[in-house]
Amino acid sequence: MRRSRLLAIPVAALLTLGVAPALAGCSFQTVVKDVTGGNVDIGGDKVPADFPKSVPLYKGAVVFGASVGSGHGKVWNVTVTVPDAKAYQQIEKQLTDAGFSGQFGAQGPDGGGTGTFANDQYGVLVVVTDAGSKGWVANYSVSRAAVETPAPTATR
User: Fold this and answer.
1) pLDDT per residue over 91-105, tens digit each?
2) Alpha carbon of 114 to those of 44, 138, 152: distances in Å?
3) How far apart are CA 62 and CA 104, in angstroms?
């Protein structure tokens, strides 16, 4: 049986929507830490130091980087600039070349797209979109793969 993938939690959704960059002050970091009970690192325009090295990122400028949680529940979010809507093709190749399975399933009428990828260690949600004055960006939300708990069996 395949391991299920944990791709999002409410805080990751907040980060993915781009609300966090606008709120990326100490008070926001404290609120998130209090709500989640975990660690939070809103690193601004840097990839978090402990971002998984096995997850390739497009080589654009980092617009936003953050992580939240600790241990198996840790989630990372990184947004990088990309040249245009078709960058999802290169991102998909990078991830599959690195051993991830998945693909971009939804593509917008103006380009870009949303894809989910996973390997035995991580789940990755990637959104390539037009960010207005920032140009095109790719947002990566990365979580550890969830381990399924075995179902109990009756013995006689």
Assistant:
1) 999 999 999 999 888
2) 23, 9, 36
3) 21
The residues with which 11 forms a beta bridge, in sequence order, are: none
Residue 55 carries which side chain, given as an amino acid letter? Answer: V
Residue 113 identity (one-letter amino acid): G
Whether 123 and 145 have beta carbons less than 8 Å apart is answered as: yes
Measured distance CA(144)–CA(91) in Å, rounded: 19
Q: Which amino acid is at 109?
A: P
The residue assigned the tokens 């609300």 is: 19
Residue tagged 């894809």 (tokens): 115
Q: Which of 18, 3, 150, 145 is nearest to 74 (CA)?
A: 145
In the three-class reduction of DSSP (H, G, I as helix; E, B as strand; rest coil), residue 74 is classed as: coil
The pTM score is 0.71
pLDDT tens sequence across 130-145: 998 889 999 999 999 8
Ramachandran angles phi, psi of 123, nearest 5°: -110, 140
- Taking the C-alpha atoms of residue 70 and residue 30, their distance in angstroms, rounded to an integer, is 15
> What's the Cα-to-Cα distance from 40 to each of 92, 119, 150, rounded to whole Å?
28, 24, 31
Contact 9, 75 (CB under 8 A): yes
> Cα–Cα distance between 49 and 144 in angstroms, integer?
16
| Tokens read off for 99 | 């051993």
